[in-house]
């Protein structure tokens, strides 16, 4: 999995909590329900073109193992990058700060690097903090906290 993308598990949580996606060329997805597709290494696909009226996207396999394929948008799970999530948050008035810290993971044998994210917004009294195994996961964790509190203005068309 690419380090700058959220994991499929986090992507599912974002989608379930209301983060909407309108496909754009350059977006990364994993394909759901395909016979030769899974969420492992061969499950990472790049959106090449969109066919919004028809509900399809054209995808290229990240590893170059398969020819381009056309897939229904409903069968794709968007794996947003940290940059895409930051753009989404900034469009809603958040200031986004990310960094690294040392900490211990549950069950870990020693200190490890954790990525952290802090969201602030003028009309919100307290910052929203998130953490994760990479920057994208930390930003997504903070974004999930805003979705859960109803402060992100997340629902509705477009991201």
Structure description:
The chain has helices at 8-16, 82-91, 135-149, and strands at residues 28-31, 44-51, 56-61, 69-72, 76-78, 95-103, 112-120, 128-132. The protein is of the alpha+beta class and 159 residues long. The chain folds into two domains: 20-78, Roll (SH3 type barrels); 82-149, Double Stranded RNA Binding Domain, CATH 3.30.160.20. α1 runs parallel beside α3 (135-149). The longest helix has 15 residues, at 135-149. The two termini are 23 Å apart.
Task: Give the SSE layout.
Elements: H1 8-16, E1 28-31, E2 44-51, E3 56-61, E4 69-72, E5 76-78, H2 82-91, E6 95-103, E7 112-120, E8 128-132, H3 135-149
Antiparallel strand pairs: 1-2, 1-5, 2-3, 3-4, 6-7, 7-8
Order the strands across the largest sheet as they lie in space: 4-3-2-1-5
The ordered H/E elements are HEEEEEHEEEH
Taken as a percent bin, the fraction of beta residues is 25-35%
Number of strands: 8
How much helix is in the residues? Answer: 10-25%
Report Rg. 17 Å
The CATH class of the largest domain: Alpha Beta
| Number of helices, counting only DSSP H or I runs of 4 residues or more | 3
Report the sheet with the most strands, covering strand number, pairing sense and barrel closure. 5 strands, antiparallel
Bulk shape: globular
Query: Judging by the overall fold, what is the CATH architecture of the largest domain?
Result: 2-Layer Sandwich
What would you call the structural class?
A: alpha+beta
